[in-house]
Structure formats: C-alpha cells, structure tokens
Amino acid sequence: DTKTLTLMLDWFVNPNHGPVIIAKERGYFAAQGINVDIQEPADPSMPPKLVAANKVDLAISYQPSLIIDVAAGLPLIRSATLIASPLNTLMVLDNNNINDLSDLKGKKIGIAMAGNVEASIDTMLKTVGLNYDDVKIINVGWALSSSLASGRVDAIWGGLRNFEANQLALEGFKAKSFFPEDYGVPRYDELIFVANANTYDKAAIIAFNKAIEQASLYIAKNPQKAWEEFAAFAPDTLNNELNKLAWNDTFMHFSAHPAAADLQRYDDYAQFMYTKKAITTQPKAQDYVLSF
Amino acid sequence: MSELTRVEPITVDPLLREVKSKQPLYKSLLRMLVSAAVIIGLWQAVVVIFEMPSFILPSPFAVFERLIERHQVLFKHGWVTAQEIILGLLLGLSMGLLFALQMLLFKPVKRWLLPLLIASQAIPVFAIAPLLMLWLGYGIASKIVMAALIIFFPITTCCFDGLRSTPSGYLELAKTMGATKWQMLRHIQFPAALPTLASGIRVAVVIAPIGAVAGEWVGSSEGLGYLMLQANARMLIDEMFAALFILSVLSITLYFVADKCLKKLIPWEA
Amino acid sequence: MSELTRVEPITVDPLLREVKSKQPLYKSLLRMLVSAAVIIGLWQAVVVIFEMPSFILPSPFAVFERLIERHQVLFKHGWVTAQEIILGLLLGLSMGLLFALQMLLFKPVKRWLLPLLIASQAIPVFAIAPLLMLWLGYGIASKIVMAALIIFFPITTCCFDGLRSTPSGYLELAKTMGATKWQMLRHIQFPAALPTLASGIRVAVVIAPIGAVAGEWVGSSEGLGYLMLQANARMLIDEMFAALFILSVLSITLYFVADKCLKKLIPWEA
Amino acid sequence: MSVDKQLLSGQNNAVSIDIVDGYLRYHDSADVILARLNIHIPARAWTCILGRSGCGKSSLLRYLANLLEDRVDWAGEVNTRPPCDSKDQITYMAQQDLLMPWLSALENVMLSTKFGAAHSSAKRTHLMVDKAHALLQKVGLKDKANYMPQQLSGGMRQRVALARTLLQDKPIILMDEPFSALDAVTRYRLQNLAYQLLQDKTVVLITHDPQEAIRLADQLYIMQGRPAFAESLIVPKSVTPRNFDAEFAELQQTIMGRLEQDYE
Amino acid sequence: MSVDKQLLSGQNNAVSIDIVDGYLRYHDSADVILARLNIHIPARAWTCILGRSGCGKSSLLRYLANLLEDRVDWAGEVNTRPPCDSKDQITYMAQQDLLMPWLSALENVMLSTKFGAAHSSAKRTHLMVDKAHALLQKVGLKDKANYMPQQLSGGMRQRVALARTLLQDKPIILMDEPFSALDAVTRYRLQNLAYQLLQDKTVVLITHDPQEAIRLADQLYIMQGRPAFAESLIVPKSVTPRNFDAEFAELQQTIMGRLEQDYE
Ligand SMILES: Nc1ncnc2c1ncn2[C@@H]1O[C@H](COP(=O)(O)OP(=O)(O)OP(=O)(O)O)[C@@H](O)[C@H]1O
Ligand SMILES: Nc1ncnc2c1ncn2[C@@H]1O[C@H](COP(=O)(O)OP(=O)(O)OP(=O)(O)O)[C@@H](O)[C@H]1O
Ligand SMILES: [Mg+2]
Ligand SMILES: [Mg+2]
C-alpha cells in the first residue's frame, strides 16, 4: 500500500520546484510506493515550523534558515537537496548608478525578511571597505522587484538570479547582480528538504529522494519537454512568459544527487553565521544533515 | 403570549413603510452602476496620469479582461471566501453578543475581562494566525475564526455601549414590574441597544472580509486571499485586482443586505 | 458668549463626579495587575498542557527575560509604532468625522459616496499596502495612512449613525430657533451623537495598531512590526512575543486613556 | 400553583405603609430634599400628595418604589403592614410616560406580562390580551392599539401608560401625576376609571390639581418647606369620588393657602 | 446693522395669522386629523386653544412652527399679516420639555443664543447671560442654574423650558401646555410672568385647563369633532389676566359642556 507524505513548499509553485512537480506528474512518487500531497504556504517561515511541530512530513527550506532553526533548537534534519547552489543575489538596476558595491554607501537596500541578511550583506560590503551601517536596510515584504523598479530602494537583497532578474527584464528593466559567493559569503544549498528529526520515516524519505533524483535526471535530459509538463500542472498560473524564462535559468541547477550532502559546506556556513553572530550556538552538520 | 402580541404591529407597518420606501430599487441600482463607473474612471485616470507601471496598478480594462477570462476560478475561490466570511460573521456576532452580555450582567466580570479583551485585540490577528493554523489546520475553520476574531471587538464594544446606555427610566419601569435581569435584557435593554448594535454590525460586516482574507494569507489552499497572494507572487497583478474586485463586490453586497435587515429590525429609528 | 457659558458647568461637575469616581486609581491598577497575572497564568498553562514547542509559543518567562534583556531596542521600536498609531488615529478620526459630516449634510453625497466607501473598506488594507508603500515611501507616512485607513470606516459609520439618530424633538426645537445646518450640527447633533461616536473611537483605538503593524510588515525599517518580522526570521520567537507584549501594552494604555477622555466628554451618560 | 398564588394575593393585598421620620438627600447634591417626613398610607385607600413643584414628591414615590436605593442617603423607617418585601408589591407609574418606542400601544400596555415569574399559559395570555384591549378601550384608545408611541399625542401616551399601570395586579399602586396631560373631561373620566379599578388597592397619587386630590383622597398630604415635610389635611367625610360642594371648596381654599404660604 | 435689525423687529413684531379651511393628515396614517379648520390669531394678543386629548392641537401648532412640512398632507391657507416668512418669526415651546441632557439648566435657557445670525459681541453675550439668570430666578430656579436636567424635577424641567422660550425675542410665540406639570400656585405665577413678558407678542397657547384659558385668552378656540374643526368662543370683555367671576364661571361651564359633548 502507498504511504502519503505531506510536503509543504517554501512558496507558491514555481520553476524552483520543477523536480517535485515532474515527479508527481510523471508518477515517479507512485512508482516508489508513496503519495505526495503538495501544499503551498504564503509565508516561507512557516513550513519548517510545521515540520518541527509534526503537522507536515516534509518541507522545502533554505540552508541558512535550517541552520538558524537547528541552532534555535527546532528538531529538524535535512533530508535532501533540491538546488545545491546559491541563487540569492544583491541586485541593482543596470543604469550606471551603482557599478560597484562601493557605490552602495548611504544607499537603501530592500530586503525580504530573512535571518542571514546582516551577516551576508556585511560580509559583502567588507570586501569594498564598507560595512552594514553604511547602508539603510528596509523591509519591503515581498514587493522586491517593484520596489527596485519604482526606485524606492537602490538595491534588493533576496531576489533570485533565475527569477527576479527575469521579472524585471519583462517589465523593461535591466538588472545587475552581485553574487554573494563572489564577495566572501560561503557557498550554500539554496533549496533543501527538511524533515522532523525525531519522527521522520526513513523508508518514505528514501523513496521520496529516489523519485526526486529520477525527476531531476529527466529534466536535465529533456528540459523543453519537462517545461511543458511542468506548465501543464497548473496552466492557469504557471504557463506564462516569466515562468518560462525562469525555467530556462533554473533547470541546470537542480541537484543531480539530492540525497548526497557536503557536510563541510554546512559546517562552514554555520561557522560563518556564528562568527557574524547570526546564531548563538553552532550546530554540527553531522547531527542534522543526514544522507539517505 | 408573545405569539399573539407579536402579530399585531404588522397592521401598522405597511403604513409606516409607505413613506419610507419611496426609492425604487432600480434607482439605487442605477446609482451603484454610476458609482462603479466613476471609480473605474478615476482608476484609469490614475493609471494614465501617474504613468503607473502595470505591475503596480494595472488598468481597469486589463483587470476586466482577466475577470472574464478567469471568471470560473474567481467564482470558485470567491465562494469559499464568502462562506468563510458569513460563518465568521455569525461566530463573531454571537461571541461578541455573549461577551457584551456577560460584561453587562456581571459587573465584576467586566472589570476583569476588559483588559484581557483589549489585549487580545491589540495583538494583530496576524501574529496569532500561525497558532491558529497549527491548532485548526489549513482548512476553513481557521479562517472563520480569524474573521470572527477581527469583528469580535467592534461587536462587543458597540453592543456593550448600547446595552449600558438604556434610558434609566425604562430600566426603572421594568424593575418595578419585577423583571429579572434576563427579562430586562431581553425586553428592554436589547431593543433599546439595537441602533448602536446596528452600527457595530455594519462595521463588522465590512471588516470581516479582512479577517478571512488575512487568514487565507497565512495559510490556505483556496479562497480569494490565496488567489491574490498567488497572483501577486507570480506578478499577475491584473488577476490580483480581479480577485480584489470580487472581494469588494462581496463586501458591498453583504453590507447592503445587512443594512436592509437592520432597517427592518429597527423601524422606530428614522 | 460661549466662553462665558462654557465656564458654568464646572461648578456642578465636581458634585456629579463625587459619586462616580469612588474607585480609586490604585484599585484599577491592582485589577490590571491581577488580570495580567491571570493572562500569564493561562499562557503558561497552555504552554504546559498542550506541550507547545517553544518555537510556536514560548513560555511567558522566556519572553519576560527577553523583554528585560532587550528593553532598549523594544522601547525604541515601540516608540516608533506608538507615533504611527497616534498620528494614524488622529488622521483617521478627522477623516472619518469629515466624511460622516459630509454624508449627513449633503444627502446625495451619501448615496453616491457610501458604496465607494464600503468598496474601499472591503479591499483589505493589506492589498493596497504595497501601493501605499510605493506612493508614500517606506517611512512613517505610509503606516500612518494604513492605521488611518483601517479605522476610517468604524469611525465614519459610528459617527454617521450617531449623528443621524438625534432625537427629532431636539432637532425640531433647534430648527424653530433658526439654527443653521452647521449650528445644528455643532450644538445639537454632535453632542447627542457623542455616546455612539465614543463606541466608534473605542473600536478605532484598538484596531489602529493592526493597521500600523501591518504597514510595517509590508515595508519598513523600524517599528514593532519590523522587529517582529526580524525576530521571526531569526527564530527568536521569544523576542517576537516580547514585541507583541509591548504592542499590547501600548494598545491597552491607549484604550484606557481614550476611555477616560471620552467619559470626561460625556458626563451625562452613566 | 399559579392559581394558589393569585388567590393568596387576592386575600392578602391589603398593605399599609408608614413612613416615620423620613430623610432623603441625593448623593450628587448638598440639598436635603426631605426631612422629618411622616406619612401614613392606609391600606385599600387613596392617599393623595400635593406640593410645590420640586419639593420632592417624585423623589418620595421613587424611593418607595425602590428606585433610588443607591443614589440617595435615606434615613428613617418605611414600614409595611403586614410586613412584606415591598419590591414585589408595587406598581409604579412615573411622571414621564416611558413608552417603549419599539412597542405598539397594545404591546406597551402588556409590557408587564413579559416580566416576573412566567406563568404564560396560552389561556392566560389570551386573557391578558383581552384585558389590555379592554383597558385601551376604556382609556379611549380602542382604535390606536397598533399605533407606535411616536404616532400618539402627549395625552394619548399618558393614557397608554395609565392602561399599562392598570393592567398590573399588585396591592400597592404609586402614580405620579397620571392625568397631567389630559383635558378636563378625559381626566374626570379616567379618575373614575382608576377609582373603580383600584378600589381594593393601596393607592398613592401625586397630583398638582387640588380638585383632583380632594375628589379622590381618603388621606390627603401636602408637602411643604425646604427640606420638605408632610402635613396631613382633613378630608371631607363623604365617599370618594366626591362631588363639588361647600366643604370641597373650603378645602381647596386651604390647599391653595398652604401652597401660597410655602412660596413665601 | 444688527441694531437696525433689532429696531426693525421692535417696530414690526405685530404679526397676525389666519388659517383658512385647514386640512391635515399624517402620511403614515389614514385618519384625517384636521378638516375645515378656521382660526384667526390676532396680533399682540393671546389665542388659547382647548380640545379633547388627541384631537390635533399639537399637530396644528407643530404645523404652524414648520415642523411637519414633509410628514403631513396639508390643504388650506395660512396667511400672516404682514406677509412674512413665518419661519424666522416663531418661538415654539413643545409639549415635552426637550432639555438637552448635556447642558446645564442655564445653558439650556441660553440655547437659542447659539443659533441664528451670530452677533455675539462680548457685551451682548453678557446681556444674555444676565437675562437668562434673571429668567431662571423668575421661574423660581435661581439656585438650580448649574444643575443638569437629570437632576431636576418634572416641573422644574418645564420651567427651564419656559425660561428658554421667554428668552427668545420673536413676534410669534407658540406654547403647547407650558404649565401642565406645575402646581396651582406656581402655575398661577408663571401665567402672570408670561403674560407680562409677552405683552406685545402674538401668543398661541394650548392648554387643558379651562380656567387657564379663560384667564389669559383674548381669543378662545375649542377644537371639536373628528376630524377636528375649531369653534371660537366669546370671551369676557374684561382685560387679561382675568379674575374669577360669574362670567368666567359661565364660560367654564360652556367649555366643559363642549368637551363633554365632543366625547359622545
Ligand atoms: N407621526 C404621526 N403619525 C400618525 N398619526 C399621528 C402622528 N402624530 C400624531 N398623530 C395623530 O394625530 C392626532 C392628534 O395628535 P396631537 O398630538 O396633535 O394631539 P393633541 O391634540 O396635541 O393631543 P394631546 O392633548 O393629548 O397632546 C392623534 O390621533 C395622533 O394619533
Ligand atoms: N438625580 C438628582 N440629583 C440631585 N438632585 C435631584 C435629582 N433628582 C431630583 N433632584 C432634586 O430633588 C428635588 C425634588 O425633585 P422631585 O422630582 O422629587 O420633585 P417633585 O416634587 O416631583 O416636583 P415636580 O412636581 O416638579 O415633579 C428637586 O429640587 C430636584 O432638583
Ligand atoms: Mg415630580
Ligand atoms: Mg398635544
């Protein structure tokens, strides 16, 4: 008989979730003997909490968030990786106002609230002799693109290189990105799956990971076909120009071996956050990064 | 007894109403249409004059197109939200009435409860929304509770203020007639409070949708709030506005229905 | 003239108040403290009984510790939010009064404006919040407008309902005295409406914080709402609750200040 | 049991009241309203009280009706004989008509049936509706039963309030200027009506009309002075309602004299 | 200019009113209240109107005060001589006291000074305050000037309302049972006061007290029938306020007869 897993995404379905959707659409989950019930939250901070509270089985989260959560004592583990490279950027409009990070002095940076903002931005600014206090941080909710496009802020932090850049382009704005990994921020996994450390179902997770790996492989081989299948999942909302562009910038980032994990990477990032005082205790990767 | 006495006023009511309902229905409908036209005109003007980029404020025509194109989806989600609002209203109303009654009947309760009540209101429902989601799940229950919570305070306040400001002469009269607390409430204070309570209900009807939509924002898989967020996340701003439009229509309808009912209930007020 | 006549009532007021203010201040303070204790007790009970994980509902003691540890930061942000709320209240109040007056004085205006008004309210402020941010910036102005918007309808409704339900005898008397519309309003309808308006203001005071905090959530760089978001992102749930606590205290204080003022204004009501 | 009770009250409804050395002051004023007030209100008889406007008649009545308990300082004794809880024994008709604006004239008359221990069998209800209709007819408002209070004239409102009072069946009736808004003829008729219906009740009537007082009083008090006390006047021996005669005229002169004197 | 106006009104305040073939029906009722009503209200004189309770006296007065415009069907003529906009010429005292609960007695008396064209020089204000105090004293409420309405007795409230009426200075005064809640002596004194202060005004007084009507009337009407019409009664030739005499008594008998007759 089939086991049902509830999976809560980090946000509404978008190209970042390609393997999940494809696995479901192409019946890879079913083939592994599991049934996955996909839920979409409106607040990305909720899914890990729900996993920790045993309300859902799996959730999509971010590596920095997981480290913060585990440091705060939430019973979470990483069960798989969805996208293994950073997608986050510090983005400005390409209008010659800001050509270099040092031009940000005294400027406004819009953020969508996240736990590692200060650590990352401070690190990036340090490389050009500035620091966090030289810029003004403004929470702009989720109106990242429009706040940048309308000129209310000079830069945004939290825009993804595969998404916000395309969004701005579609609205007629050319954006320029500064990648955190180029400015001293350790590399990290952008999107990961998390499960409850105490109650996770090992067999189900293994089955789940297999299906995801199969889907990633399929996408890597047939990106165009996969796009059509992805868009067919919810044609009303998915089948549009922006998602198509985003897809093309995303599919190569999907982790080929979701189950595998680079423990060192987690420890490095935790170390980075700890020294930047974003967390007060330093969790060990071996305790919460599991490979299935 | 009440069956017998309650029947009587009907004979005078038609007379009373004769003068009031001069306004035919089609006139108020016409007025609504013209209002709508004016709003749309203003909206278009803002779009044109301020050169609004469409990802901030789409033109009404784009929204209208979207509305037609997606009417099925919109109605489906609208129906969910409508249910949440109406059930939330009922729940909030009864809780508010109950609370007000309690504060009225047991003076000490009031003193102790009021700060609690205000504190509970001061905490934005959003802040406790995650708790609600955890307890009540992602289904309709949590949204109903959200809507009820948001209207709870206006109802309680208006009801309580209305109930306690009954002309003292009425109360004294009933007292000499041997009215119990409950009878006093039922036959004197409640009818006397109806006009103030009506204000509260009008407010409630209009803000209840905020609660329902807010609830959907925190967690849901259907409803107009969900649709709006999703549309917003996908930069389908015209769809978001189409959902907003449906929501407004819902609210206005609710308001006018409530208003009509309230006016029927309180014929002795102008 | 008014200066002279206005002076008189003072001589009777102390007499009137003599009976009412039997309740000494320390008693109501004590009550507040006990209420607070009860709330905290309940809270702790929920934590213990439901085995609430601390990342969803931290224990009151953890929150209290945080409160003391971070009081400076909390007060700084609290002060910002307080300003937003108070200015929002003032703006919303004056707009609401103005609107209600207009609807009262120019009947046709009412017919045309009311649907607009309801529609504007039905649209959750949240939905237009991003627009407001873009127009008014991420500073204090947008939050003030948010708070004002959210209280605008309760104020308008209560004020309008209060103004139009003046006992007709009073109006007729003033009419025979040659009162202009404005004088009628100032000297008859407004004082007669004060009790209902007071209900509206009480509601407004309690829901204005929701507007301000919601505004901060959508876009800001300071204030309790900002602090809460930040704390949430860092999983500092106890800090988030500490901010919530400050917000509640703010609301309760505002409510009681408003209540006191209103009672002073309306001595003729019980 | 409800029948039992009614029988009981039928036998038992002779209550007399004695006020000894009454003193009354409103909490929110320094003026003493009543002092050294002694009044005897005999059972099954009409006691009429006259007095200058503002002397404290209504205050006295309201105190007797238990409406001032927590708003005045009171000293002195109020004794009922047989001793009883006066709360449940009193019907009170206020100086203002106090019609509920949301009830029709008929419903206002029947207001009291909604209160107290509920013995509302369908039959009893029917009886009360009939009684209310009959009373409305007797006060001359047969065709206004369904009018709302706002549609009635001042005198009509007062008549509805009177009918409401007469519908109740308690041993003590306190009435505060019940006929003040009526024309001479209506007033005369309603005096007769009340006299007739309240024959075996203990009635306290406040009035400003000396003729009315003399016509109906078995016991007549005039309140005088500041603070007010009550002086008993001797009424003619004839049976009430009295007709105008020499003794009547003389008493009227006395009353006017007293009122006049109180004015100085 | 304000002085001009006052002078003008001082010269000009003799307004008479003629009602010809008046007909009145409330929109919300099928009953016709007044029909074929003819009344002449002479200038600078007191016109008293008597009538059964509910016959339409208040309705007539309210119509004259422009308070029923949109709530009744009216047919017939109302002519003022000299022709003027009656709206600005009328002071109206309603059957209810209508004191504003948020104003003290003194402020209630001064209510009218807040309305109309504002000529509130400090001096004028002072004058009005003095006048209000004087009036309160004259109606016997000197020491209650700062009381709130809720603290006054029924008669006191009516007296405040009377003082408020007397403070106004318009050529036509309409009063609806202004003395109904007062004791005989106070009533007598206030009749004199009103008579004295309203000597050169056109006064319409509704009353239920035939003696009051006869005492003060230059012109006396009794309203009768359903719908009601008005019949003029001949008043004694003596000057008002009249004392009781044979003619007085006879007229009183006539009035009682008419009222009685209206009852059948
Ligand atoms: N708003 C109204 N709608 C319908 N009928 C009304 C209204 N107001 C008054 N009436 C009717 O008009 C008639 C006359 O009322 P009005 O108040 O003029 O009487 P009145 O002569 O002043 O009586 P009273 O001496 O009792 O004050 C009454 O039959 C009353 O029922
Ligand atoms: N709530 C109150 N607070 C203070 N004083 C009051 C209050 N109510 C009444 N009084 C005073 O008590 C006195 C008596 O009032 P009461 O109503 O008993 O008079 P009354 O004899 O019924 O007069 P009337 O014939 O005018 O109705 C008055 O001087 C009045 O000012
Ligand atoms: Mg009295
Ligand atoms: Mg009348």
From TrEMBL, chains B, C:
GO cellular component terms attached to this protein's record: plasma membrane
Q: Which UniProt keywords apply?
A: Cell membrane, Membrane, Transmembrane, Transmembrane helix, Transport
Q: How does this protein sit in the membrane?
A: Multi-pass membrane protein
GO BP, sorted A to Z: transmembrane transport
Question: What does the similarity note say?
Answer: Belongs to the binding-protein-dependent transport system permease family.
Listed name of the protein: ABC transporter permease
Origin superkingdom: Bacteria
User: In what residue span(s) does the ABC transmembrane type-1 domain sit?
Assistant: 74-258
Q: Which residues form the signal peptide?
A: none
Gene3D superfamilies documented for this protein: MetI-like (1.10.3720.10)
Bilayer-crossing regions:
29-50, 85-106, 113-138, 144-163, 192-215, 235-258
Q: What is the lineage of its organism?
A: Bacteria, Pseudomonadati, Pseudomonadota, Gammaproteobacteria, Alteromonadales
Location in the cell: Cell membrane
Under the heading Pfam families, the entry gives: BPD_transp_1
**SUPFAM superfamilies the record matches:** MetI-like
What is the species of this protein? Paraglaciecola psychrophila 170
Automatic annotation (TrEMBL), chains D, E:
Q: Spell out the InterPro entries in the cross-references.
A: AAA+_ATPase, ABC_transporter-like_ATP-bd, ABC_transporter-like_CS, ABC_transporter_ATP-bind, P-loop_NTPase
Arranged from A to Z, the UniProt key words for this protein are:
ATP-binding, Nucleotide-binding, Transport
Entry annotated with the keyword Iron = no
Among Gene3D superfamilies, the record links this protein to: P-loop containing nucleotide triphosphate hydrolases (3.40.50.300)
SUPFAM superfamilies named among the record's database cross-references: P-loop containing nucleoside triphosphate hydrolases
Q: Which domain of life is it from?
A: Bacteria
Q: Which Pfam families match?
A: ABC_tran (PF00005)
Q: Listed GO molecular functions? A: ATP binding; ATP hydrolysis activity
What the entry lists under SMART domains is as follows:
AAA (SM00382)
Residues in domain ABC transporter?
17-250
Is Transcription there in the keyword field?
no
Sequence similarity: Belongs to the ABC transporter superfamily.
Q: What is the name of the protein in this document?
A: ABC transporter ATP-binding protein
Which species is listed as the source?
Paraglaciecola psychrophila 170
